[in-house]
């Protein structure tokens, strides 16, 4: 069965990367969530997508220039025009505690391409191990050097390279850097590549799948999973598809 990962929670309907978006993913029956981590000024692992605060909060400047205490005073639902009331930027600790109360898988994207965030990999891995979530976490990044570091630090954790452009034989490349799945932009994952990866035993989880026709195509292909802003619609289509 093709699994459904809720992108930044249910980002198409709720304030992204907030607890309300993650709770919505549970409510609609998603199999997992996808989220993003960065470091605060004082080295805490926080959940937010952009390096800048401007788009999703009522502040400006960089995440890395604010302490956790400062970040916690911000409204993380600001980008949704106040429809959802006030939401706080979660920490990875808060998310892992939340995950302990459900069965969802969790794809953590390390946001370390613009800023390298020294020590981010070790901190994330330490927390995942502390909360005994090794079998439910997938680490991904566009920074493939970072994924090699993750694999060296924690070979028991699944890592998956994110990429936007066509890769030749991506199942070979992923394996070469210790990866056990690929997370391509859907434009870089034509049917033939998805089928070849699956035949080589390499899971494929493309992003960001928001069109119903594309969801149906991936269900038809038996794609391992996909990442979507609209998990409720994806679950509804999958239920109809498997009747």
UniProtKB/TrEMBL annotation:
GO molecular function, one term: phosphoric diester hydrolase activity
Domain of life: Bacteria
GO biological process terms, semicolon-separated: lipid metabolic process
Pfam families the UniProt entry points to: GDPD
SUPFAM superfamilies in UniProt: PLC-like phosphodiesterases
InterPro entries membership: GP_PDE_dom, PLC-like_Pdiesterase_TIM-brl
Limits of the GP-PDE domain: 2-238
Protein name as catalogued: GP-PDE domain-containing protein
Species, as recorded: Peribacillus simplex
Organism placement in taxonomy: Bacteria, Bacillati, Bacillota, Bacilli, Bacillales
